[in-house]
Every structure is written in structure tokens, then in C-alpha cells.
Design a protein that fits this description.
The complex is a heterotrimer. By secondary structure, chain A is mainly α. In chain A, 72% of the residues lie in helices and 0% in strands. Chain A is globular, with a radius of gyration of 20 Å. By secondary structure, chain B is α/β, with parallel strands linked by helices. In chain B, the strands form 3 sheets. Chain B has a 6-stranded mixed beta sheet with strand order 6-7-8-3-9-10, with helices on both faces. A 4-stranded antiparallel beta sheet of chain B has the order 2-1-4-5. Chain B has a 4-stranded antiparallel beta sheet with strand order 12-13-11-14. The chains are: A mainly alpha, B alpha/beta, C mainly alpha. Chains A and B meet through helix 1, helix 5 and helix 6 of A and helix 3 and helix 4 of B.
Amino acid sequence: MRFLLCEAKKHLSFREALVGYLIGLGFLILMLKNTVYETADVSEQWFGMYQDIRTYGATLTAFLLVTGLSRLMCCERERKTDALLFTAADGRKITFFSKIGFAALYCFLTVAVVGAVSLLVQGASFGFADASSPVKLCPYYREEGLPPMSCLGYAVVQYLFLFLGALCMAGFVLILAVLMGRTAVTMCVCGGAYLVLLVYYYMNGGPLRGAALTVADTVFRFSFVGFMTQETFAWGSVVGMPGVWSDVWKPVLAALCVIAAEGVLLWALWRRKERK
Amino acid sequence: MKLEIEKVCKRYGDVLALADVDLSLGSGIYGLLGPNGAGKTTLMRIMTDLLKPSEGRVLLDGQEIAAMGAEFRRRLGYLPQDFGYYPGFTAEQFLLYLAGLKRLPRAEAKRQTAELLETVGLYDKRGQKMKGLSGGQRQRVGIAQALLGDPDVLVLDEPTAGLDPEERIRFRGIISGLSRQKIVLLSTHIVSDLEAAANEIILLKKGRVLGVRRPHDLLAGLEGMVWTVPVPAEEEKELASRYLCSNVMHDGGMSILRLIAKEKPYPDAAAERPNMEDMYLFYFGKQERT
Amino acid sequence: MRAEIVQILRAPLYWLVLLAGLGARASMAVLDFRHRPEQAWLLAGEFWSRAGSVTMCLLILVVLIRRFSVDYETGAVPVVASTPLGRRSLYFFRLAAGCAMTVLGVALLAAGNIGITVILGRGTPIGWVRDFTLRTVPTAVGAVGYFLVSAFVCDILANQPAAMAVCGIPFAVSYFINTGMIEPFDVFWFLRYGFFTELARGRWIASRPGFWIVWYVLLIAGVFVLSICRRKERKLL
């Protein structure tokens, strides 16, 4: 725990992270200001909230992950403390696991804060009406295989999926940070990758056709953007998977496998980088 | 306890940074002396398992340090030549953090941290952030962290860089007190530190070990080869280019040169007792012309 | 200034970013000419609207503004600042070199796009090259303006990643704002037009251009003044 706190302490000295918090706060205020609903139709309001989690929520979370975590694996090299840490008995192992722990905690707190604030503000705008009503009653969802849960419960589930996606993205950011060794380049590549995949998502494949489109679609759905925009979890539209709630364990398992694979790769890269 | 370096070589592309380094170090203080680019830092990084040698191996009590891993690092204390810090940490927090990484229990870490800060004269500054400390104070924190965990093997790369004379004397006292049960290897360009503290000096030039000798023996080898020569100022340049010159003083219109030569270099030359700077120049300076 | 230009030209990332941008353009061009040939020339002309402007943004944020934080990051400030040309002169040399390299980047990308399109399209429609070149002019103006503001921010913060976040986000967000949905003087209107994106995308701003000229001048001047004040505090001027 204390090493986790030490990583948090290091994180507070990352200037780009602090800048990211300020910009993120501005973005969150702007997002809430423009998405507080005035329509009287409550089901539209809940539906709008679910859409916001997949769009604004995902983008804001991605932004905070890129600004907050890009320096995490580079800072020892950039600050020239790697020789001190890596000659300590458990320096390599403890540093690695404390960074992983911090990254996971950071993902959780990011999604939790963004989610809690958004849910409270947006929900309060229509008084949380129908919060305990089954989500199946929402007219936009009637044809889909939805879970037997309330509207509020479904919103929480969506945030849990966003958290899983955030963990996937965090793994990607940390791997790139170890490979690049430079914060600025890591931020650019991660941010760029997110934007490219997001643009692909909004362009519905653009000029791609046939096999290229299938490959690109698969890559997208099992990328961190696919998890964060919840396309991977969206039952009824995942490649080769039937769209029912009972099958949601498949994309969840896929996400967990991706996270595990990223963890193994990260550990291999971390150890490989230690001894040139 | 024995640290053995067996036929260690290190290549960076076509450049041979270390060639066939063979050393056996028991308890005591060893000075590593050599010009810039000799391979001192490379050798130290190999000895601390931060760098993989191209050939050869390093053994501690018969076991390869690469295989020992964390067990070796538990017995190691290392101060790099140019180390960084976390600006938001205080001196005490920085040491406690490193103590934790060295597997020290919390209570023991606190005790040792306080003791070491006292030893290096920074106990009053323990609450100050690292970024607010001067270069010399940060260097002392670096020395303190190397001593955490009471390591058996201490590798110190330029430990006295940035320290004032009083702090250097204090450092020598600390190291001397530890040398009986530890292997201490320190590299420095301040040769007087080695004369005062080192039991043996390892001479390293262009990646090769020239020899391992006691300071006394190195100086004895130069007996009768060091001369003080007063000359008119206009002759200074010619003499200094012909012989190794370890010092020049100007007094009135005269130049007083300290030269290293096998034979008396000048009629008025007077023999002097050699010092460590003379020794350094003899082994690493440009060769005698005559 | 020559030394600064050489430093930038020798940076592998400068060429890597340009090549990546042209590589992306080449891939899209192949697909466009194969699957939607009737729109291919239109899309080629819109190079600055997407790949081109994104490439310039990356070039500026990853490569060009680094010259304003590298001395702090490497600890070279005391050495550099104690030289006769190491303060004010170096600052303006770096700004000038960055502007020159930005314009060079725009020129190289434009030439690359023309080359790729001509080769894949096997010739060009009449006037296409002229129209595309005319669209390159606002891109160059916008890119230089964006470089200046980003460089000043990087100098103020003395930290490249932080400057990337501050300058990159408004640029990126503007791509997702639909001009049909925004009203003058609301926040999204400022985000869409206020950070050089529209110019970098090869378009002069049609909505209240007079206002934007004043805005851009004030933005550049304001950040410049802040940068000067910060340098004075650090005794680097």
C-alpha cells in the first residue's frame, strides 16, 4: 500500500497530469451543461445517459488515462532514478507491481468520479424518475436482449464496462510508455491511436470493404476503444456473437484476457528493459 | 567474502569498453582510478548487475550475481555517478521509499533512515523536499541511500562529487569505519581521497586493468622520479612539453615546475616525494617524450 | 538559427511523422480510387481536412515545440543561458526556425499529396493542383499560428507533455464539432474556430472572419506576453 502511495506521490509531480485534470474538469462541465435533458420523456433521458457514457464518458476517461499514465513507466528513466531503484533488492518487482496497482486504482477512480458526477448531475436533472423501472421498458431497447435490471442498474453496468475498457487502455498506454521511454511520444501515440479508432467508429468503416472491413472491424471491437465505447459489449452487434444478455460473459472474458495478456507483455518488457 | 570479476568484456558495437577484466576483491576499500572513458562506470554497472557483460561473469562468494538476483541486490549498496530524485519527496521520504525497496521492515527503515541522515549531517533537513536541497546535500542523501540495509558490497561512483572538504573528510571517516567487513569499491578523480582511504587501487585505462596495488606501493614506485625545477618563465613551455608536468607555480619572473622524469631533467632540479597526482599522471598522462 | 534548423532536420521524428502522414494518405488514396473513384479527387483535395492537418498537429506538438522544453528536461539551462546568445537570441532563433520548419512541413505534405494523387489517379483534373495549392495557403498560416501558440505554451510550462495536453485537446475536439449545430459566440463555436483548426484544415473562416483575425492576434500576442514574463522571472531574457 505504501508503495502505491509513493507512486501517487510521483504522479502528483507530473505536470501534464495536473493540466489534464484541469482540462478534464472543463470538459466534464461542458459535457454536463450540454447534456442535461429537458425533454419530458424519461426513457429518452435514460437512453441519452447511456449514449453519453459510450461517447463523452469514454473520451474523457481516455483523455485522463493518456495524460495521467503516460509518464508512469517512463519517469524512472527520465528522472534518472532507475539505477537506484533497480539495484535495490526488490526494486524491480515492487516498482512494477506498485505501478500496475496505481494504474488500476487510477482507472477505477477516473471512471468512478466521472460516472458519479455525470450520474448525479444528469439524474438529478430529471429527478431520477424511473430509476428502478426495468430497462426493458425503454422503447429504444425493446427489440434487444437486455438484462433484467433497472435503468439505474444498467447505467452502473455500463460504467463497469467502461472501467474494463479503461483497464485495457491503461495496459496499452503502459506498454507504449515502456517501449517509447518518452512521455510526449507516448501521449501522442496513445492519443492518436484512440482518435484514429474513434474516427473509424464514427465513419462506419469509411472506404474499407470486404475482408479489409472485417479485419478492421474485428480489430476495432477488440481494441480498447471498442471496449470503452462498449461496442464489444453491445449485444446484437459483436462479430460472431449472438445478441443476448446471457452471452455478455464472452466479451467480458475477452476483455479480461486482453488485460491479462497486456500484463504479461508489460512484465516481459519491463524486465527486458532492465538489463541492456 | 569475495567478489570475483572473471574475464569481463563489454562491447558497444565496435567499441571495446572493457577488455578481459579479472579482479578478486575481498573485504576492504578499493579505489578505481582511471581517466574519463576508461570504463570505470561500465565496470561498476556490470558489478551491480545493471549491465550485462559481453563476456565473462561476476561472482559473489562463488555464485553468479546474475543468477542470485534479488539476493545479491539485498547485499548491495550503489551510488551512481549521476542519479536523479523525485522532486516531491522529502529527503526522509526518499530514503524510506528506497529502504522499502531494499526489503527493510518499516521500523528498521525508520531507524536506519534517521541514523544515516544524522551520519551525513542532514537530519535537520529531513523534512525538506529533494528539489530544495543543494547539489552537495542531494549527494549526501545519495550516500545515505547506498548505506541503507547495511550492504556487504558498496559500489560508489564519484561519491564525493559536489561535497566540500569537511564533508569529504566525514565521508572518508564513514567509509573507513565500514571497510573491515565490507567490500567497498569507489571511483573518484580526487586522488587524495584514495590515498587517505583506499587499501588498494585498481588502475583502469582504455578498458584494461593496468594493475592493483596499494597506494604506498604505487608511490614507492615513483621514488626518485619527481622533481621540483625552478626555471625562467620563457623555458617553462619547452620543459613542460618534454616531461610530464604535475604542477606549475609562478614566483616573480620564475616558474617552478613539478616534473616526472627518470633522470634529473634540469641542473637545478631537486628531488621530491611523490604524491598521488604524480602517480596519476605517470600512469595516465601523455607519455614522456625523451 | 541555422543550428536550430539543422537540429530539427536531424531529428528522425520530424521525417517519421511526415512519412506516417503521407503513408496514411497513400493508403486512403488507394482505397478511395478503388472503391469510390467518383469521389476520389474530391477527397484528395480535402487532404488538409483530415490527414494533413492531423499530421501537422503531430509534427508541431511532438517535434517542433520540444525545442522549447528540451533545455529544462536535460538540465542544460544553466549552460545555455550563460552564453551570449543563449537567452533572447536563442528564443527568437527557435521561434523562427520552428516557423520555417512548419512551413516546410506543409510544403512537403502538399507535394506528397499531389504526388500520390497524380500517380494513383494517373493525371489530374483541370485546375485541381491550383485549387489544392490555394487551399494549402490557409493551412500554412494556421499551422504557423498554431506552432507559435504551442511553442509559447511549452515555454511557459517548460514541459512538453503538458503543452501537448493544453494545445492538443482544443485542436482534437474541434474535429468532432458539427458546424451546423453551433451558434456564434457559444463555447463550441470558440472550440471549432478558435484554435487554428479551421485554417489548418485548408479553409478560411467564413463565420465572422474579422472577429477571428482579432482573436488570433490577441491569442498569439497574449500567450507571447505571458511567455516573455515567465522568461523574465526565470532570468532567461
